């Protein structure tokens, strides 16, 4: 039996990926020009599927980049001149902040210890902030910010553009896109695709700000919002994109729509609940995130007591169950379990049964 | 019979691609962490194959990006503060220049009309130039610069770093990498892979210049040469890369090495010769590039007399032969024929036989 990957990205492929890939090879999709009508039709179909899946407001546009990492940089270049504010509570939210500093922005931060989330009461976004960055799901620590809290930030702080990194939360996170201005993800997490594509969802308000900065500073060249949007209006991209991933994303999104996003969300929560319940009762494991409201349903981090985490990982791997190691300094003491849509309830059950007797 | 793609990128897939892709799916390569030993081993294997194929000097490093477009930008950010010089004779060499201007560099240019190449005698690179950019093969116009001329520029102008865009010339172009400082390509051209990966070959001299600019200006964030090299030393990448393309590239490079790069070069020249000989004798077609030494062996551009080019393209397409349209303003009057290693001598023969009676 092939191993099951519970790794937080690259992750288990969505079950329909191999079939879609074969169809695309048979149809020679990857030899077609990215300037052809066939590619425009594909982009349009991806656009329609993603709009339906995320219930995007009309004014949103969808751009493709090489990675989510690139979107940290491009969003800062196109949307900010000076003042940014970052909610940082892990390695990936920290990298968004790093990028702002590298670009010379006056980046302010509210930082919480690894494993902790934010309470609304402690967040104070300074007047004059151009961009507020939020990591909806910290892949490193397993902390999420409930979407209700993200929506509340808009009414508390209506001035800044709100950027949501939902790299390891999409498509589970039921974000109300009318309450934020942009969001982004990469496809090797919740969508279960091979890595190499970032997806950037951008509203009209962002485009208006981007237009005012155009000509005032370097906004990202071919990957500025202005350039991306100019191409997007013909369902084109500034340079040759990862057509393979766009093709697979289009089809997997349609598969998810056929299944129903509500079903996917319910299954995600049920699977997460099963794992967290086990971690709480286990003597060997414990949930790393203390605050229940901040425990991610999509990337679950467990502390391993008494044994080195590597031993647990090897033990599970021998049974065909591949979990992720803890991030960075937490490698020795934690494991990470991705609970993406590609992983079934039966597979989560197998994992919990295998963890029980360790 | 499946159509043959003579399009200049995305192009015909290399014949072994489908098999390698199936093997990778079977081995779940695309679910493996990009921080795993398995990925490091893959990167190292790609590195070894590319070194052998290009006969790279020891001091070169090999980095992966999302596209060749990105390398235009990143090379300018990491290697230049002020003065760049660009040889421009088509749309892609022009885009490298555009990027330098967007980044605020004092970019000087020697520009030739579309369809013409450069003679060494007319090139004068100003003193103080930090980076000289050369497009070895202009995908838009079908003009190449003979590698001997590129090598000669180094002795004529030893001061600037020399950057060679070999996007549609690799691996055919027998560039002597000791005579330049960096080169790059994307994989959807001569390597016959799905689009979505740029490959950047960078020598020690570039890294030394990059080190002096680090801290002085924005050098590209995660995609600065310093950051890429830091990761490269452990065969890692700054962010999750297109593992699928890296896997396919590794295996196709090994296939090419097994066949022999000399054989590939000889076949490329024989196929190009066959097409150009036909274009010269044809009443309907003519080679667009007048100067024989500047006629690209990898992207062949033909002028179409008397008929709209679209009619020729349709006629050939009906026979399962897909050629590219002319670039931009030349769409109505030209066709482009990619002569990459994925296209066999038999297929080129079929194309010429089909063009003959039009």
UniProtKB/TrEMBL annotation, chains A, B:
<keyword id="KW-0664">Pyridoxine biosynthesis</keyword>
<dbReference type="InterPro" id="IPR022278">
    <property type="entry name" value="Pser_aminoTfrase"/>
</dbReference>
<dbReference type="GO" id="GO:0008453">
    <property type="term" value="F:alanine-glyoxylate transaminase activity"/>
</dbReference>
<comment type="similarity">
    <text>Belongs to the class-V pyridoxal-phosphate-dependent aminotransferase family. SerC subfamily.</text>
</comment>
<dbReference type="InterPro" id="IPR015421">
    <property type="entry name" value="PyrdxlP-dep_Trfase_major"/>
</dbReference>
<dbReference type="InterPro" id="IPR015422">
    <property type="entry name" value="PyrdxlP-dep_Trfase_small"/>
</dbReference>
<protein>
    <recommendedName>
        <fullName>phosphoserine transaminase</fullName>
        <ecNumber>2.6.1.52</ecNumber>
    </recommendedName>
</protein>
<dbReference type="Pfam" id="PF00266">
    <property type="entry name" value="Aminotran_5"/>
</dbReference>
<keyword id="KW-0663">Pyridoxal phosphate</keyword>
<feature type="domain" description="Aminotransferase class V">
    <location>
        <begin position="7"/>
        <end position="351"/>
    </location>
</feature>
<dbReference type="GO" id="GO:0008615">
    <property type="term" value="P:pyridoxine biosynthetic process"/>
</dbReference>
<comment type="pathway">
    <text>Amino-acid biosynthesis; L-serine biosynthesis; L-serine from 3-phospho-D-glycerate: step 2/3.</text>
</comment>
<dbReference type="InterPro" id="IPR000192">
    <property type="entry name" value="Aminotrans_V_dom"/>
</dbReference>
<keyword id="KW-0963">Cytoplasm</keyword>
<dbReference type="InterPro" id="IPR015424">
    <property type="entry name" value="PyrdxlP-dep_Trfase"/>
</dbReference>
<dbReference type="GO" id="GO:0004760">
    <property type="term" value="F:L-serine-pyruvate transaminase activity"/>
</dbReference>
<dbReference type="GO" id="GO:0006564">
    <property type="term" value="P:L-serine biosynthetic process"/>
</dbReference>
<keyword id="KW-0718">Serine biosynthesis</keyword>
<dbReference type="GO" id="GO:0019265">
    <property type="term" value="P:glycine biosynthetic process, by transamination of glyoxylate"/>
</dbReference>
<keyword id="KW-0028">Amino-acid biosynthesis</keyword>
<dbReference type="GO" id="GO:0004648">
    <property type="term" value="F:O-phospho-L-serine:2-oxoglutarate aminotransferase activity"/>
</dbReference>
<keyword id="KW-0032">Aminotransferase</keyword>
<keyword id="KW-0808">Transferase</keyword>
């Amino acid at each position: 039996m092939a191993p099951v990957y519970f790794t937080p990205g690259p992750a288990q492929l969505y079950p329909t990926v191999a079939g879609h890939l074969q169809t695309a090879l048979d149809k020679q999709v990857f030899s077609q020009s990215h300037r052809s009508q066939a590619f425009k039709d594909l982009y349009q179909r991806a656009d329609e599927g993603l709009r339906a899946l995320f219930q995007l407001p009309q004014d949103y546009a969808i751009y493709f980049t090489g990675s989510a990492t690139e979107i940290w940089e491009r969003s800062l270049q196109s949307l900010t001149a000076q003042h940014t504010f970052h909610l940082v509570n892990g390695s990936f939210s920290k990298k968004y902040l790093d990028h702002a500093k590298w670009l010379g922005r006056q980046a302010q931060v509210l930082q919480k210890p690894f494993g902790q989330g934010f309470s609304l009461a402690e967040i104070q976004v300074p007047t004059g902030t151009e961009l507020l960055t939020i990591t909806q799901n910290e892949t490193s620590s397993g902390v999420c910010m409930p979407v209700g809290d993200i929506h509340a930030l808009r009414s508390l702080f209506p001035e800044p553009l709100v950027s949501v990194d939902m790299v390891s939360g999409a498509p589970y996170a039921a974000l109300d896109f009318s309450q934020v201005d942009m969001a982004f993800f990469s496809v090797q997490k919740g969508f279960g695709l091979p890595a190499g594509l970032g997806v950037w969802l951008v509203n009209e308000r962002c485009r208006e700000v981007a237009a005012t900065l155009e000509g005032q500073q370097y906004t990202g060249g071919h990957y500025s919002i202005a350039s991306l949007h100019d191409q997007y209006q013909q369902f084109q991209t500034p340079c040759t994109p990862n057509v393979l991933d766009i093709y697979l994303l289009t089809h997997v999104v349609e598969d998810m729509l056929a299944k129903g996003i509500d079903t996917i969300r319910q299954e995600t929560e049920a699977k997460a609940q099963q794992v967290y319940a086990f971690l709480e009762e286990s003597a060997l494991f414990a949930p790393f995130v203390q605050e229940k409201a901040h425990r991610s349903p999509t990337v679950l981090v467990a502390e391993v007591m008494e044994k080195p985490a590597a031993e647990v990982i090897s033990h599970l791997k021998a049974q065909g169950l591949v979990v992720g190691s803890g991030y960075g300094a937490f490698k020795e003491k934690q494991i990470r379990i991705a609970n993406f849509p590609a992983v079934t309830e039966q597979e989560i059950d197998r994992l919990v049964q295998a963890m029980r007797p360790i």
